[in-house]
Design a protein that fits this description.
The complex is a heterodimer. Chain A is an alpha/beta fold. In chain A, helix 3 packs across helix 4. Chain A contains eight helices and 18 strands. In chain A, the strands form four sheets. In chain A, strands 5-6-7-3-8-9 form a six-stranded mixed beta sheet, sandwiched between helices. In chain A, strands 10, 12, 14, 15, 17 and 18 form a six-stranded mixed beta sheet that branches. The radius of gyration of chain B is 21 Å and the shape is globular. Chain B is mostly helical. The chains are: A alpha/beta, B mainly alpha. Chains A and B meet through strand 1, helix 1, helix 2, strand 4 and helix 3 of A and strand 1, helix 2, helix 6 and helix 13 of B. Strand 4 of chain A pairs antiparallel with strand 1 of chain B, so a sheet runs across the interface.
C-alpha cells in the first residue's frame, strides 16, 4: 500500500503563561537574536512536556520529534493521556496551526473533524447550513447538491430542513453536523473524539459509518479517542503519545495493550512518593493494599470471593477537628470506565483521621475477569484533601463461580451476576 | 480510485513571504459566495425592514450632516446641494470604513472556525469585502437617484468622463480597507490594544478626509494632513467625476493608488505570516 502521510521530525512549541503582557520586549529580543542569526532565546530545546512537573522556561514542547508513516487504507488510533499532544498533532495535520519544526507530506484530500458543526450559523436553515458547512470543510457546491438527500437522510431531519438550526434540538443539530462531515469526499479523514456527543444509537451509527469508510472505501482514517473500545473496533494501527513524544507504534490491539500496561506501571510507585496528585498536604494517602480473607496482601482475586481494600494515610492534627471527612475508592476498568465506587460517606459522616487507615471489606466481589485500576479520593467539609487517579490496581480471575465447571465467555460484561433458573 | 498525486500537499514550518495561495483560494470560491450569502441573510433575519436598513442609515447620516455641518457650521459645499455633497462622501467613506472595521477583527471573530478547520484564510477578509460591496452598490444607487432628482430640479451638476475612473476607485478603497484591516487584525491577535484604537481612530480619520468639507475649504496650515490621507484623493476624484466639483489631479490619485497598493501588499504579507500560528496566541 502506498504511503499517504509521512511525518518527519515534527515538533511544536507553545508559549505558556501570559501572552501579551511584556511581549513587546521579548518579541524585540527574539527578533534581534534572529537578525544576528542566533537561535531564539525563548525556545529551549530538550524540555519534555510533563504537565505534572513545573518547567523552567516559558515554552513547552507539546510535540517532540515525531516520526511515523501512514499507509493508504489504514485506520490509525492515536491514544495517550490528556495533554500528551494528541490534539496538537491533529491540529497540525489539519493545518489549523503550523509546526515549529519538521514537516509532513501527504497525498490525498484531507477532511478533518476536530469538532462537528464548525461554522454553523444559528439563523440559517438546515439546508443553508449544509451548504455552508460543507463548503467550509472543503466541498464544492455541486458535490454537496449531489449528496444532499443522502446527508438529510443520514441525519434524519427531513421535516426541519427549512427551519433555522437555532430551533433544532441539540441532538438534531449534532446529527446534521456529523452527517455533513461523514459525506465528505476525501481520501483522508481525521477525527477527534467528536463521537462523545449524541445518543448511543447515533454514536453507533457514526462508528459504523467510519468503519465503513476505512474498511469499505479504502480511505485512511486517523482517530483520536479515549474510548478504547471504539479504537479497538475501528483501528488496525495504533500510536501512543506520551508527554509529546511518540511512545509506541504498532497494530491497534498492541497499542491498546501497551497503553494499558503503561498505565499500570505508573502505579507501581510508592503512594507516598507519588507527585501525581491533588492535595492540600493536610492528609496524604501513603499506601493502598488489597487483601484476601486471610489478611494476605496480593494482586489477584477470585470472582465472587472476599476482597479487602485497605487505604492508609497520615493526617495532621488540624484535620482532627473537621466536621466531615470521607474516603472514596473508585474502581475503573482498563478503558477508564468507572465500574463501581465505595465511599465511607455512604455509611458515616466522618472517619477517624487519627486511626491512619480505613478498610473497605467486600464479602463477595462480583467484578468479572480482568484488570482494574483504583482511584483514591479524600474530602473534608473544607474541600478536597487528597486525590490520586490510578493509585493502584488489581486483577480478577474467574474460578468456577457457578460451581458447574463452566466459564463465562470473554467480553460478557463487567459484572458477574448470581442467578438461579426456574422452569 | 482518485488520482492521489493530484492532491499532493506538504506542511512545514517555513513559508514564503508572498505566497497568496491563489490556487487554493480559487478552489474554495464556492465558500466565498456562501459566506457572502450568509452575511446578507443572517444580518437581516427577523427584521421587518430587512435590506432597507442599508438605505436608512446613509439617508439619516446625510440629513444630520446637512443640518449640522451645512446648516449650523456653514461649511462650504462648493455650490453643490448639501445632501448630494455629503452623500457622495458618506457612501464612499462608509465602504472603506466598513471594510477596514470588519477585516480588522477577522481573526478574533472567526477564531472558533479557524481553530477547527483549515481553509485558505484569505477567504474570510475577501468575503467581507464582497459583502460590503453589495451594500455599497445599493447605497450608490440611492446616491444616483439623488443625483437624478437634483439634476431635474435644476442644480448645477456636471458629470464628466472622469466617472470612468470609478471601478478603479472601488478597487483602491477595497485594497486600502483590506490592507489596513489585515495588518490590524494580525497585530490584534497578540496586542489587543489596537482593537480599541480602531473604533475611535476611524472616527477621527473621517474628519481628516474630505467627507464633510471640500479640499478647497481645508485650512492651508493643516491641508497637508488632509492631502496625505489616501482616502482624500479617492473621494475628491469621485466628486469630480460624478458631480463636477472638487480637486482632481492625477498626482493626488496616483498617490492614493500607490498607497493602496503598498498597504495591500503589506497586509497580505503580514496576514500570511500570522495566519499559520495565530491560533496559538489568540
Amino acid at each position: 500500500m502506498p504511503t499517504v502521510i509521512k511525518v518527519e521530525n515534527l515538533s511544536k512549541a507553545y508559549q505558556i503563561g501570559q501572552i501579551g503582557t511584556g511581549t513587546l520586549q521579548s518579541d524585540f529580543r527574539r527578533w534581534y537574536a534572529k537578525a544576528r542569526g542566533k537561535e531564539d532565546p525563548f525556545l529551549k530545546i530538550g524540555e519534555t512536556n510533563d504537565r505534572t512537573t513545573k518547567s523552567e522556561g516559558d515554552v513547552v514542547w507539546s510535540l517532540k520529534d515525531i516520526n511515523f508513516e501512514i499507509e493508504q487504507g489504514d485506520a490509525v488510533g492515536i491514544i495517550g493521556r490528556n495533554g500528551a499532544g494528541k490534539s496538537t498533532l491533529l491540529k497540525i495535520l489539519s493545518r489549523v496551526t503550523a509546526p515549529t519544526t519538521g514537516k509532513i507530506t501527504g497525498n490525498g484530500r484531507v477532511a478533518s473533524l476536530l469538532e462537528v458543526g464548525t461554522g454553523f450559523h444559528p439563523e440559517l436553515t438546515g439546508r443553508e447550513n449544509i451548504y455552508l458547512n460543507g463548503a467550509i470543510l472543503g466541498m464544492r457546491k455541486k458535490e454537496i447538491t449531489h449528496k444532499f438527500d443522502e446527508i438529510v437522510d443520514f441525519a434524519g431531519v427531513e421535516r426541519y430542513i427549512d427551519t433555522p438550526v437555532k430551533r433544532y434540538s441539540s441532538g438534531m443539530y449534532v446529527r446534521l453536523a456529523f452527517a455533513v462531515a461523514a459525506h465528505l469526499e476525501s481520501e483522508i479523514l481525521i477525527v477527534d473524539e467528536v463521537l462523545a456527543v449524541g445518543d448511543a444509537e447515533f454514536q453507533k451509527k457514526c462508528l459504523g459509518k467510519m468503519g465503513e469508510v476505512s474498511k469499505g472505501e479504502g480511505k485512511t482514517v486517523l482517530f483520536v479517542s479515549h474510548n478504547m473500545a471504539a479504537v479497538r473496533n475501528l483501528c488496525n494501527k495504533g500510536i501512543i503519545l506520551k508527554n509529546g513524544e511518540l511512545n509506541f507504534k504498532g497494530t491497534g490491539e498492541e497499542a491498546i495493550d501497551a497503553y494499558i500496561t503503561n498505565q499500570i506501571e505508573v502505579s507501581k510507585l510508592s503512594l507516598n512518593d507519588l507527585e501525581r496528585r491533588q492535595t492540600r498536604n493536610r492528609l496524604r494517602f501513603t499506601d493502598i493494599c488489597f487483601k484476601d480473607e486471610n489478611g494476605i496482601s496480593k494482586k489477584d482475586f477470585i470472582v465472587g470471593r472476599f476482597l479487602e481494600i485497605e487505604v492508609s494515610f497520615i493526617a495532621i492534627e488540624e484535620l482532627y477537628m473537621c466536621k466531615t471527612l470521607r474516603v472514596d475508592v473508585g474502581i475503573n476498568d482498563i478503558y477508564g470506565n468507572r465500574v463501581t465506587w465505595a465511599s465511607t460517606a455512604m455509611l458515616i459522616d466522618k472517619i477517624d483521621p487519627e486511626k491512619g487507615s480505613v478498610s473497605f471489606i467486600i464479602q463477595k466481589i462480583l467484578l468479572n475477569e480482568g484488570a482494574y485500576n483504583v482511584n483514591l479520593f479524600c474530602e473534608s467539609n473544607e474541600g478536597i484533601e487528597d486525590w490520586i487517579e490510578n493509585a493502584s490496581g488489581f486483577n480478577m480471575l474467574f474460578e468456577d463461580f457457578y460451581k458447574t465447571g463452566r466459564r463465562l465467555p470473554e467480553r460478557q460484561g463487567v459484572f458477574v451476576s448470581e442467578f438461579q433458573i426456574f422452569q | 480510485m482518485t488520482d492521489y498525486q493530484h492532491y499532493h500537499w506538504e506542511i512545514t514550518a517555513q513559508h514564503k513571504l508572498l505566497d497568496l495561495k491563489l490556487q487554493d483560494t480559487w478552489a474554495y470560491r464556492d465558500l466565498l459566495w456562501l459566506l457572502v450569502r450568509r452575511d446578507f441573510v443572517a444580518t437581516y433575519k427577523q427584521t421587518i425592514l430587512g435590506p432597507l436598513w442599508y438605505l436608512i442609515q446613509p439617508v439619516f447620516t446625510t440629513v444630520i450632516y446637512t443640518l449640522v455641518f451645512g446648516g449650523i457650521a456653514g461649511i462650504s459645499t462648493e455650490g453643490l446641494p448639501g445632501p448630494l455633497f455629503y452623500m457622495a462622501g458618506i457612501t464612499m467613506w462608509n465602504y472603506f470604513a466598513d471594510c477596514l472595521n470588519k477585516t480588522s477583527t477577522v481573526f478574533r471573530d472567526n477564531a472558533g472556525i479557524f481553530g477547527k478547520v483549515y481553509f485558505p484564510r484569505l477567504i474570510m477578509p475577501l468575503s467581507i469585502i464582497i459583502s460590503n460591496l453589495v451594500r455599497f452598490v445599493i447605497q450608490l444607487l440611492l446616491f444616483l437617484a439623488f443625483m437624478v432628482f437634483y439634476d431635474f430640479s435644476g442644480a448645477n451638476i456636471q458629470p464628466n468622463v472622469y466617472m470612468l475612473l470609478f471601478p478603479l476607485l472601488v478597487l483602491m478603497m477595497a485594497g486600502l480597507g483590506l490592507g489596513c484591516g489585515m495588518i490590524i487584525s494580525s497585530l490584534t491577535t497578540k496586542y489587543r490594544d489596537l482593537a480599541f484604537l480602531v473604533t475611535f481612530g476611524m472616527q477621527l480619520l473621517m474628519y481628516g478626509t474630505t467627507v464633510i468639507y471640500p479640499l478647497s475649504a481645508a485650512p492651508e496650515k493643516y491641508k497637508w494632513i488632509v492631502v496625505a490621507n489616501p482616502m482624500t484623493g479617492i473621494i475628491e476624484t469621485f466628486r469630480y467625476g460624478f458631480l463636477g466639483r472638487g480637486n482632481f489631479s492625477w498626482e493626488l490619485l496616483g498617490y492614493s493608488a500607490l498607497f493602496a497598493t503598498i498597504v495591500f501588499a503589506a497586509g497580505i504579507i503580514v496576514f500570511n505570516r500570522v495566519e499559520k500560528k495565530f491560533i496559538d496566541t489568540v
